[in-house]
Design a protein that fits this description.
about 325 residues; alpha/beta; four-stranded mixed beta sheet; 13 strands; binds NADPH dihydro-nicotinamide-adenine-dinucleotide phosphate; Epimerase_deHydtase; oxidoreductase activity, acting on the CH-OH group of donors, NAD or NADP as acceptor; NAD-dependent epimerase/dehydratase domain-containing protein; NAD(P)-bd_dom_sf; NAD(P)_dehydrat-like
């Protein structure tokens, strides 16, 4: 069976690709240029290369950007859409973040609906940012909760990223309910939290410009940026390993009951003790919000690696790179 995977150069997508290949799929990844597409293919072990190819989608915010990419022979069975800007600073919040996130999401669904009727399931990488609602935390976060960030707040750079994720996800669910005739595919979203793990093999070299935003935090530690003092952290700290996030995407594509559901993919530790909470909501300090990851464990079978394994493997992967800058 065949999968279209967007944002092939990305940190999360690189691990989704590994799981897809492991599960026997043929995969077409999207990349913003020929050069990036070639780099992805070159990083794949030679014995798996005959099952991967790339297609260039230069600007996902453009109308019809995916019209050609969704057409393939043999046709696609599934689409996993990870491409979206994950930065915390923007020159132009609309052009640099909100448009690619929101128009990219509605655009790919429109293209699938119009040109790829064989697609059965679409999985979109949303984020915990579409769930979390600071400072008005509920007692327990689960998939029933949505961030209350508004479109009016979205152009304030402090809110742009989380608004991009909320409104991209919301527009996807709205597409499903408002489109006529109804789309032939079902939808699942992965709302993963702050994600750590080994860097993509296709990363040419390591600099703060190319490492993804969440792993940058670990790169800073490795480089001794916090030698003098560890910066203050929130009382509740959530994280998840990228390999668990990747498996969640592929299971959300494969498992029939996953259709129509969001999945909060999250584990937690309480800093500064760095005690890893093994998937339970019971060990959090009194008075702080908790999370419920039971749907991802129950429906998708995610077992969750602990913080130590995740950080150790991330550091190993960073030390193995050709470090620049
Ligand atoms: P990366 O920055 O590694 O990957 C982002 C991917 O999106 C890259 O392939 C990038 O392409 C592509 N992309 C970004 N902007 C555009 C654009 N305007 N047009 C086309 N492609 C674009 O980050 P992650 O892998 O971490 O992020 C992947 C997804 O996961 C995003 O949707 C992000 O919001 C979500 N997420 C990430 C979390 C984390 O902690 N890492 C947590 C929760 C959700 P290029 O390489 O060419 O720039």
């Amino acid at each position: 069976q065949k999968v279209l995977l967007t944002g092939g150069t990305g940190f999360i997508a690189s691990h989704v690709l590994d799981v897809l290949l492991d599960h026997g799929y043929t995969v077409v990844v999207t990349a913003r240029s020929e050069e990036k597409g070639k780099r992805i293919i070159d990083a794949i072990p030679p014995d798996l290369r005959d099952r991967v190819s790339y297609v260039v989608v230069a600007d996902i915010a453009q109308p019809g950007a995916f019209d050609q990419a969704v057409v393939s022979d043999p046709p696609f069975d599934f689409v996993i859409h990870t491409a979206s800007p994950y930065q915390l600073q923007f020159n132009d919040p609309i052009a640099d973040c909100l448009d690619p996130a929101i128009k990219g999401t509605t655009g790919i669904l429109q293209s699938i609906h119009a040109f790829a009727p064989t697609v059965k399931r679409v999985v979109i990488t949303s984020s915990s940012a579409a769930i979390l609602d600071p400072p008005n935390h509920p007692k327990v976060y689960d998939e029933s909760i949505w961030s209350s960030v508004t479109l009016d707040q979205a152009t304030d750079p402090a809110h742009t990223y989380r608004a991009s994720k909320k409104f991209a996800e919301l527009s996807a669910w709205n597409f499903l309910t408002t489109t006529t005739p109804p789309p032939s595919f079902t939808l699942a979203t992965i709302n993963n939290t702050y994600t750590f793990g080994p860097l993509p093999r296709s990363l040419a070299s390591l600099s703060s410009g190319t490492i993804n935003t969440s792993n940058l935090r670990i790169l800073d530690l490795v480089r001794g940026q916090h030698r003098a003092a560890i910066p203050p952290t929130a009382p509740v700290f959530t994280f998840v390993d990228v390999r668990d996030v990747a498996l969640a995407h592929v299971r959300a594509m494969e498992v029939p009951e996953a259709g129509g559901k969001r999945f909060y993919v999250v584990l937690g530790g309480v800093l500064p003790s760095e005690e890893v909470v093994a998937g339970t909501v019971d060990d959090f300090p009194e008075g702080h919000w908790r999370f419920d990851n039971s749907r991802s464990r129950g429906v998708l079978g995610v077992e969750y690696r602990g913080l130590e394994e995740s950080v150790v493997d991330t550091v190993r992967s960073i030390l193995g790179m050709d470090v620049e800058g």
